[in-house]
Amino acid sequence: MSGRRWQGSFTDGRTAALREVVAVFDGQFLLIQESGGVEVTRWDVRRVRTEPGGRPGSVELRLEEEPEASLLLKGPDLASDLRAIGVGIPALSESGSRRVIVGLGLLAGIVGAAGLVWFSVSPLSRLIAGWVPLEYERAISGQVEEAFADYHCESDEAAALIEGLVVRLAGPDHDLPTVHVVNLELPNAFAMPGGGIVFTRGLLETAESPDEVAGILAHEIQHVEQRHVMTSIVRGALLSAVWAVTIGDYSGVLVIDPTTAFHVATMRFSRDDEADADAGAVAMLDRAGIRRDGLSAFFARLAEEEGDLPEWLSTHPASGQRADATRAEGLADPSDRAASLDQAEWAIVSGACEGTNVPEMDLQELFF
Amino acid sequence: MTGAGGADPYPFAFEGSGGEYYFIFLKHVFLTLITLGLYFAWAKTERRAFIWKSLCFHGHPFRYTGKGAELFKGYVVVFLGYLAFVSIPAIVAALSEGLVVYVEAALFLGVLVCVPYVIYRSRNFLYSRTTWRGIRFGLIPESRAYVKQFFVGLILTLITLGLYEPVNANRLHKTLMNNTRFGTLAFRYDGEDRAVWVLAMKGLVLSLLTGGIYYFWYRAALERYRAAHTQIGDAAVLVSNATGGQLLVLFLLNTLGLALTLGLAFPWILMYTLRDLAGRFHVEGRLDFEAIAQRAEGESAVSDGLADALDLDFGF
User: Fold this and answer.
1) Given this model, what pLDDT does residue A261 score?
2) Do A256 and B34 touch (CB under 8 A)?
């Protein structure tokens, strides 16, 4: 192969000048020469590497000791010629159709990996949430709990009755969740990190029977016992880390705002938690010997009033479904079971905040 | 300032293919997922390398010489800094509730103060890892003027309710451009504050009158002005022939185009955008390549990671 020559261009990495050169192989070195045979430099072929990529019909060579210098050779059969003289050539870049196959394989791999993440994130979050003691949870919710504390409006008798209900539902041995009523018109109930449960005055006043309240209470206790709040915090952190890292660099390019897409995706897990809380609540009511049709009646009522929010956009399963799921089916006549509270007790609880001095809470305070 | 010396202009060109870029993207998403995110530094590096080598000046491609490992180390340092930033208030809180507010305010101010340094140095990182014909770009290590203009400009912009902004942008651009080097070749920007401000006011008024459409014509005019006032060495100047219509089309492509294809066409849209960008610019005059020599080494990758963390980089 000695004497073999190739046309090319050369930059020495010391200035930006480009020289048209001829590279001649003398058996050991590549002699790089300008027109007239003037030698610019010589490269030991054993120290020469090929630059990957590059256009067809040309090959870019570099010398290990001088990474900024570059020799671009042009001509047919370059790859085989260079290999013959001892210069390392990387494999030919993939042909078009092979690329497509590999691309499809990658796509399948991505879908598989994504699926794996999707299905493992909930169990994993539940596991991690279980390791966190309730006191730590309480520390997280500190400020929010304090904000609510100013608006507790339940009378002492009502508080005692509600506590009695909690003991009936959850059993006396537990670290029992504390229940408070907050002076808000909006009917709602929720569990807070750390195990506090809050009912709004509005919910107690619009409930049509004590069994509805018992059912909702059982549902919220389930959220606390199943550590749903902590689980969703952990899950949110895990998912947003994975999401941010995978999509992060490309986030400017996705059409759907990534945060929104992320929220819609994670609502699925919320709905699962709610369904689990419903199922647990029913079991709890049954064990306590309380009628469960209060809960399903509540959902049935909600379903009637419910707007057109499609389920996939909601954090809760559709109320109609929840009503069905919690209805006493195939059981003996539900009136066999005791009501949760008698008439007098129910009057105290539903009027828990009547005549209270506590002012109504301004929701805007919560959101600063 | 056109056609000095009668030499042919030196063109830019972008030759990347959307299909190849898409392939790189798929590979990155897959590897990033299975490495639980650790791969992203190498992914970013490979993406930059592809875009850089697809861009040519005077027929010769640029090259990105950054390495995934150095970017990764930079991100690790930034991550540790972030941990410190988050845990210091927590530790202080455990020791003394009252101090926390001051500590947090001090940390926040500290980060704010760093912003222009990070912008400057991450720009230098990017430049110093960019070569053309083996010669490195770079920013001279003189960030003081830039930092000063950044804060003075911030205050003045706030005081003037934004009216100062075009002047501020012009001055920052001037400082950066005058500090930019290609090897030993210097750039010089001599765009006037007044001219730029007038351009901006005209742009503002006409944009308001045309429901925003004129904005693209303003951006094109600004680009042409800035280019025309950018000297390269002693005998060459940058030229842009951007038009408002062109920029409008690019905007529609990058918004509607992406929307209509649910984001799937982004590699081709990006390639088109870059091709269009390269096509609008060229250099006129004379460049003495033999006189352009190599300079010494550049920046560490920590500033790049920091810029990314603070969301100050350009998405590349």
Assistant:
1) 60
2) no
